[in-house]
Amino acid sequence: MNYDEIAALCQRLEYRDKLRLAQMLIQLARKEEESQNPRSQIEENIQDSWKTPDNAEVIQYVLERIVKLKPTKRSGLKNSIEAMFQFQGGISEFELEKIISELQRLKYIKIDENNRVKYL
Fold first, then answer.
1. What is the pLDDT of residues 21-62, one digit of tens each?
2. Same domain, 80 and 106
3. I need a surface site. Which of 3, 24, 59, 91 has the fewest CB within 10 A?
4. How many domains, in total, are found in the chain?
5. Span 78-109, pLDDT tens digits
6. Is the pTM of this model over 0.85?
7. DSSP 3-state assignment of 2?
8. Does residue 83 lie within any of the structural domains?
9. What distance, in Å, lies between the first and last C-alpha atoms of the chain?
10. Which own/partner pairs from 76-79 qualify as long-range (CB within 8 Å, at least 24 positions apart)?
11. Residue 43 located in a structural domain
């Protein structure tokens, strides 16, 4: 069976079946990619291609989104930043803390002793 035959058969499916098939194909492709590229290589590629947290562009990107979201607690701030990077392979706890520290150092935010976030 080739691609054209499969595509023709897929066009006859109901929309829900098409969505289920698409989801299954994505999962299979991800598993195949992981088996071909061990996790350490994937992480190295992400680190090489992904902007580092001390990069001014990343800080600016995070700042713009955080100002709109305005999480009030440190935990909400961390969750918001993690969500920003979830489609780029995620972000480590160390990188997350680096971003928060940089936002505080540049006086964009302040986190008080009760873990409340204040925007300056």
1. 999 888 888 888 878 876 555 455 545 544 454 478 888 889
2. yes
3. 3
4. 2
5. 999 998 888 877 888 888 999 999 999 999 99
6. no
7. coil
8. yes
9. 61
10. 76/117, 77/109, 77/111, 77/117
11. no
